[in-house]
Design a protein that fits this description.
Elements: H1 7-11, H2 13-25, H3 28-39, H4 46-57, H5 62-87, H6 98-123, H7 152-156, H8 159-187, H9 194-224, H10 237-246
Helix pairs in contact: 2-5, 2-8, 3-9, 5-6, 6-8, 8-9
The protein binds protoporphyrin IX containing FE.
Protoporphyrin IX containing FE binds near residues 24, 85, 107, 114 and 184.
């Protein structure tokens, strides 16, 4: 006999699943794409990058918008995602079909993305919570990968580890999102037949390749092009340097 639903999660299972699915595309997926686009302005040089980041940070009601459209949906998707991931069982080794591998990879990339997002936020946005320098959006470019030491975490790990961390995190987040587009279309009944699923799979794979290349090239730009030394004082650099010198690790890299 079927078990009667008990507990909040059981009773609202359908709604929670749908909200989880939707939040993965809008707003989180949309934010991911936008974030990668913002990062790619690094190719235009440090000043363009900082200018763009500053434009975002000068938006009125930024904190409210961030909480409403990024942090809250992300927290919901991640927490309920952990619940789902702990419930599901991978059968990719017993039945090595493509769909089973994709199911398993969706969960593996979920865990990696979770670690990546927490690490990324602690590295920059909330570094001051753990003894680092406060995030200075006027010198966001300057903060990357040993252009300066932004605090405790930078001192803990060498720059190449951070670059690898960002590269792996970016690829996993993009895979998770793009494979998620395919399962989203199934969840919402957008793709019903095999053929339409194949079309969406090919489109999502194409998008995944473009976003990965985009994200990794931006990372390359952020690491490769050093910020110019003659940036005007007050553009963030001087304040940041002073902050770091006063910070816990104290000493700047040469
Ligand atoms: C960049 C951040 C993220 C994006 C853009 C994203 C996007 C998505 C999308 C679009 C789906 C497909 C929804 C569906 O099948 O209907 C999905 C599924 C999933 N996500 Fe995320 N996600 C992100 C982060 C996370 C995190 C941090 C976790 C937590 C561990 C997580 C756990 C899951 C799980 C377990 C599924 C599979 C759900 C199922 O099989 O029904 N996601 N995600």
């Amino acid at each position: 006999m079927a078990r009667a639903p008990s507990g909040f999660l059981d009773r609202h299972h359908f709604l929670l699943r749908r909200l989880h699915s939707l939040s993965g595309i809008i707003p989180i997926g949309a934010f991911l794409v936008n974030h990668l686009l913002t990062n790619s302005t690094a190719f235009l040089g440090p000043d363009h990058f900082d200018e763009h980041v500053k434009w975002i940070h000068d938006m009125p009601w930024l904190l409210a918008l961030e909480v409403l459209f990024i942090f809250a949906p992300l927290a919901f998707h991640a927490i309920y995602g952990v619940v789902i991931a702990l419930q599901g069982r991978s059968n990719a080794s017993a039945y090595p079909y493509m769909d089973n591998w994709r199911y398993t990879l969706q969960r593996v990339t979920a865990w990696v993305t979770l670690v990546f997002i927490v690490g990324h936020l602690m590295h920059f946005r909330f570094a001051h919570w753990i003894g680092g320098a406060a995030y200075d959006y006027k010198a966001a470019y300057f903060a990357f990968f040993n252009h300066t030491q932004s605090g405790f975490l930078d001192l803990l790990l060498p720059a190449w580890v951070w670059v690898a961390f960002y590269a792996i995190g970016t690829v996993c987040a993009v895979y998770h999102f793009c494979n998620g587009i395919v399962t989203f279309c199934i969840t919402w009944g957008i793709t019903i037949g095999d053929r339409s699923r194949q079309y969406v799979s090919v489109g999502a794979a194409g998008l995944g390749v473009v976003l990965c290349a985009w994200g990794l090239l931006s990372l390359y730009a952020l690491v490769r092009f050093p910020p110019s030394d003659n940036r005007p004082v007050g553009h963030g650099r001087a304040e940041r340097t002073a902050q770091v010198e006063r910070g816990p690790g104290g000493k700047l890299a040469p």
